[in-house]
Each structure stands twice: as C-alpha cells, then as structure tokens.
Amino acid sequence: MSTAIGAPRESVWHMLTAVAEIVRWNPLLTAALKIPGAYPITGQQALWRCRLGNIPLVLHEHLHEVVLGERLHSHCSLGVGRFRFEAIYALDTPVGSTAQTRLYLKFAAPNSVPLTAGHLDRFSLRRFATELVSTSLRRLRECCETSAGAEVRCEALPSPTGKDRENARARVKRGRIPRIRP
Hints:
With 182 residues, the chain is α+β, with helices and mostly antiparallel strands. Helices cover 30% and strands 34% of the residues. The chain has four helices and nine strands; from the N terminus they run βααβββββββααβ.
C-alpha cells in the first residue's frame, strides 16, 4: 500500500525514525522500551510496548536494512516470538516535486501462525493487517502534513487510546479482529 504525503521527504523520514514521533503515529505502539542510541542503523534491535486489541505485548524489532532517507526494512515479532512479520517502508519523491513524498509500506507475515491450543483464521488476520497498514499510513500522513505547515507535531492527532481504541473494540464485536479458535 502507499500514500501521497504533502511534506518533503526529510520530514517524512524524520517521522519514520524519530522515536517520540513513531509512538505518536503508529497505532500498534504505546511506548518505547529499549531503543539503541543512534536509531535507526542496520543490525540494531529495539523493543517497543504495544497493544493488540486489549492484550499488552512487547514488539521485538530487528532493523534488517536502513538506507537513510529512502528505505527502512524491519523484521519484527510480537510477544514470545510466535507471530513474526516484516515491515518495509520506502520513500519516493515525484519528479519535479520537493514538497510531496510517496510512502510505500509493505507488511508481510507467514501464512500460518503456530499457537497453543488453537489457530488464527488467515483471512481475518489479512483483514486485520490491511486495516493496520491503512491506519498507519493515514496517521503518518496526517502527522507529516500537520508538521509541514506549522511547528506543531503529532499532538494534534487523537491518541491511540482515544477513538482508535473505541474503533478496535467495535471491530472485535463485529468479528473483524482475528480470534483464537480451539
């Protein structure tokens, strides 16, 4: 998936890599736990606190490839490492434009997820992942465009604990969040 952002490439890269900004726009993350000094550098590992529905987890991130200003490729696992995925962010500037950036996000997970006493429906997981990517891109775009026009950062956006949590609860009730089935 991708989105056009009305902000220069440098601003978008800053939002992708500044720890305080990441926690503000990423709907999955709630806090940074252990982030290395000169984040992000290829090979570094970071720990983030996150919530998946109502379940608090730790997200382990391994930076597989970092090309400054262009590409950020992470291998991640949630909790005890049973659910693994890759997130690849790539930036592109349209020809003749310095005030607009196209951001691509590829989210890839294995087709099956081993669990104790159950399994995840892969189609529910796909819908959940699509919603997560879409929400991440939208919030990142809003954050970048807000900061491009003023010195205000993402504080103007609703926090993940507000409306996003209400929407998540509604998705659980409608059966749109993957459930563990025995």
